[in-house]
Amino acid sequence: MIGYVARRVGHAFLLLFGVSILLFLLLQAAPGDFLSEIRLNSQISPETVAQLRAQYGLDQPLPVRYWKWVKSSARGEFGYSFAYNTPAAELLWPRARNTLLLSIPAVVISWLIAVPLGVFAAGWKGGWADRLFSGGTSVLLALPDVLIALLALLIALKTGMFPVGGMTSINAQDQGTWAWLRDLAWHMVLPVAALVIGSVTIILRHVRASVNEVLESTYMRAAEGHGLSRLKLLFGHALPAAANPLISLFGLSVALLLSVSLLIEVVMSWPGIGPLLLEAILARDLFVVIGAVMLSTLFLVAGNLLGDVLLYAFDPRIRRQGIRRQGIRRQAIRRQA
Amino acid sequence: MKRPFKFTWAIWFLLAIHAVVALAGFSAPYNYETQDREHAYAPPTRVHFIDCAGKFHLRPFVYATKSDELNLMEYTPDCAQPARVQFFTQGDEYSILGMFHATRHLIGVQEPARLFLMGTDGFGRDQFSRLLYGGQVSLFAGFVAASFSVVVGLLLGSIAGMYGGRVDDVAMRVAEIFIAVPWFYLLIAVRAFLPLQISPVVAFLLVVSVIGMVGWGRPARLVRGVVLSARERNFVLAARGFGASNAYLLRRHLMPLTFRVLLTQMAVLIPQFILAEVILSFLGLGIGEPFPSWGNMLAQAQQYNVLVSYWWMLLPGLAPIPIFLAYHSLAETLQERIKSTI
């Protein structure tokens, strides 16, 4: 177990390393930097600009800058934000917490909805319920995320029942912990709902597909022949047999949500990584951009790791043989992510 | 194999939509930048069959509208000024593919009446016309970007699969990096390193290449898989025995085998990439005003007052839905076909 997890963690680290190198190579190709606009200002002398460049380390060659960034990441700073004059990590961590505050409930709720619905849809294949289901999921899948976010905002504005944007009300902090929590939860309702709508369909389809596959096998037919009840058959036997690819998907669904989440955070002005990333791009605050992308990759890798560990814990076959790649299903899922 | 009905339907539908959008100058009643400041935020024009007097007309018509004295954004139909909906009518000048100049439009009405099928935006520009012109950007960005990724994926994937060893390792590790990052974050980050204030044409090319560059990992992997398994098949081994070079084998025997997989990938990637363009433009990182894209049209609906008062500003968000549905059913059928032949 420990060896297996250590191998996965090592792989994850290599991946993060690769992503960071890629980002720095892109950085090299970028025209202009944080100081480009200052340089256009005639009131600031070229000497001052050069001095600032030296101060920010922009005049050094790329490998040196990369090495410095690696060192500062090892200290947990992730480089330096030019716009805010602080280590990038100080900006990133609270935002990451807020993003997770949306994503984790959304993942949990999506799965709680998707698993029973998907199993039922697989169980009643070919009926009107199944047809309704596949029609509904196709339409939901075709719904652009932007539209979902805007509709959520519209609901907030029209009904007046939900707060519009932000994480808490201005004075929420003064009214005690409980009131604050309630306020926070109230602000979370719409963004989480939008996230669930944006991600639940893909999970649903995969649940249905993998349960379907199992239902076609001969041992399921044998179990049916022995007179097991439909419910027991579906949830007691088919679901555990179909669980493997779904557990891998559980890890990957984090990635799926992160991409949708970015947009919903921006539209609903939730102070997560998304708005920070956008702001940093417009200000050319490159270390924050790199930090945000690295963080999102970190979440994804962590999700995958969680999936692998769960798989290891649940499936005795894998414990014995080491992990077998669930190649096809994974690729199908990644395609969506 | 018999073509399922859905498949045929999807192909014809997509062809029709692309034709309409490509000929946007002709099929749209107005130009995308024609402003009508007297009709800012005008709601969709109602097409009537029955006039104010209650009489029925066979030919549909519209009424000219005038804004309210007190509230400029309230428009009331003027019963004294009906105008028939005309086909093949004269209007703004446009050019198709930059070659043919013409003034004839598929549909339109005589001034002073206006035909705003989907209302107007804050500058009084016709949303329907902008939607068609915007389709030129959004739909073709998706298509071009997907072709770009598939071509890059084909080259790198087949080289990796053919030569194996060190080359394969490097190519697949790099592909893995591109697949590993939540792709939207990567997309935005890549965009971040490129200039922000640029002309629409440059922006289009830039957006397309950024999207294509971020998405090549998956096709590359698929192609590698196909090449890897086909490399050991008898006809390839025979050709090699006759002294065929690697390049010849790839070109003549292996690449054609990947065609089906790549076609399916195209059907999967195009809607995803259309959405990517829409979102980039929505966030202000894609194609900018005055040229429309479905993304930057939707961006106007982000303002609270616009969102609440003018529902038709959300219509560009509905436009991708039928197109995505068609592409999805296309991809589904193609995938099933591959599965059934294996």
Write a compact overview of the structure shown.
Chain A has 337 residues and is mainly alpha-helical. Chain A contains 14 helices and 2 strands; from the N terminus they run ααααββαααααααααα. Helices cover 56% and strands 13% of the residues of chain B.
Distance between the termini of chain B: 14 Å
Tertiary shape of chain A: globular
Count every beta strand of chain B, where a strand is a DSSP E run of 2 or more residues: 5
Characterize the quaternary organization of these chains. Answer: heterodimer
Largest sheet features of chain A: 2 strands, antiparallel
User: How is the largest sheet of chain A built, in terms of strand order?
Assistant: 1-2
Protein described:
The complex is a heterodimer of chains A (337) and B (342). Chain A is mainly α. Chain A has helices at residues 2-29, 36-40, 46-56, 62-74, 88-123, 128-142, 145-159, 176-215, 218-225, 230-267, 273-283, 286-314, 316-321, 327-336, and strands at 80-81, 86-87. In chain A, helix 1 packs antiparallel against helix 12, helix 5 (88-123) packs across helix 8 and helix 10 packs parallel to helix 14 (327-336). Chain B starts with a helix and ends with a helix. Chain B has helices at 5-22, 24-27, 127-163, 165-180, 183-192, 200-214, 217-230, 234-241, 246-254, 259-282, 294-299, 304-309, 315-318, 320-341; strands at 48-50, 56-67, 75-84, 86-96, 100-108. In chain B, strand 2 and strand 3 (75-84) form a beta hairpin. A three-stranded antiparallel sheet of chain B has the order 1-2-3, with no helix packed on it. Chain B has 342 residues and is of the alpha+beta class. Chain B is built from 14 helices and five strands. Classes of the chains: A mainly alpha (337), B alpha+beta (342). At the A-B interface, helix 1, helix 6, helix 7, helix 10 and helix 11 of A face helix 4, helix 5, helix 7, helix 10 and helix 12 of B.
